[in-house]
Amino acid sequence: MKFSASTVLLAAALGVSAHPHGAVHNHVHRDTNLEVRDQFVKNVKPTTTVFQTVTVPAVNAAAVPSSSSSAAVAIAAATTSSSQAAATTSASSGSSGTIGSSGSYTGTFCTGASKRGTVAENAFAGNTGSGTYGCNLKFVEESAAKNYQYISVLENAASEKQVCACFLKTGPTGEAFTGFWKGKQVLDFELAPGAKKYLAVQDGSIGGCSCGVGSLPLTALGQISGVWYEWEFGSWSDKNKGFSGADASSLVPEDNGNPIQGMTITSETPEYVSGSEKKSIIYPNGDGCNAFPKGTNGEDGYGFNIANSQKGGDAIRLHAKWGTTGTLADCPNVVEGPKSWRQTRA
């Protein structure tokens, strides 16, 4: 599912990251947002042409290096439009009443003009909303969550306020890998200690959410740089046929020298998650459990692999908590082929 490794290349092209090694470089060409073990296949760009130009938002012109880079990079003016939807804060710890069933999803999203790209192009870019950018994401009341097929419960497990954002892989201008920069995010929100919000996501959407204690973490060039909860729900890819995926990733903050915090993702509908994949964790010290900690830029196959999640099918509920504690000793000793869930920070 991981696409955070590709963001390192954008920073590298701007002179921020010092180590875009070959394995990472390959991610730009073969996009790994749905790299999973058995059912999923990579959601690759529908063309034989590799990325030559990447458009990213201008945050501070003085911060952009004047030297040339191996990638031609155009700096676009940042758009400051950011949707803030009605949200709920709940201290309830259970999910009773928030999970619907096939055929019961009455919740609606935006309607408008359809995408003009081919089916393959739209699957690569992901759903970005019909008519209005980002209207495929919204916060809903806990009592209304059962009306939506794909719900992410976002929670603050820390004792201090978290400042957060949710974003899409593709930015407002239609360029892939540009939605997670300052001013491009879809939703800005805060989580008080113990608070939760319920994020409803429309099928075909590819994106993530990130939080920081006290303020939203950013890189020097304005890339959102907290620990990421990466997700894709109801894939539009012909090969993935509606499957979903998610993972915890600290690649962006680690590769940019930003602080990290613990984050844990679990499933409230584990019966639909393949194998033993019931969690994806970044620990406070940087180690990982079935996730993408420092040093895994060139790897794939970690995180959640969620079947039976085609549009209109089974309800999927993932629960992401920022500010969690724990150590690698808490990670189940699961080995899948050559991959172990227990990952020591490189």
From TrEMBL:
TM helices/strands, residue ranges: none
GO CC annotation: extracellular region
Annotated InterPro entries: Allergen_Asp_f_4 (IPR038903)
Keywords recorded for this protein, A-Z: Signal
UniProt keyword Metal-binding present: no
Alphabetized GO MF terms: IgE binding
Cross-referenced Pfam families: Allergen_Asp_f_4 (PF25312)
Cleavable signal peptide: 1-18
Entry-linked PANTHER family: PUTATIVE (AFU_ORTHOLOGUE AFUA_3G02940)-RELATED (PTHR42039)
Protein name in UniProt: Allergen Asp f 4
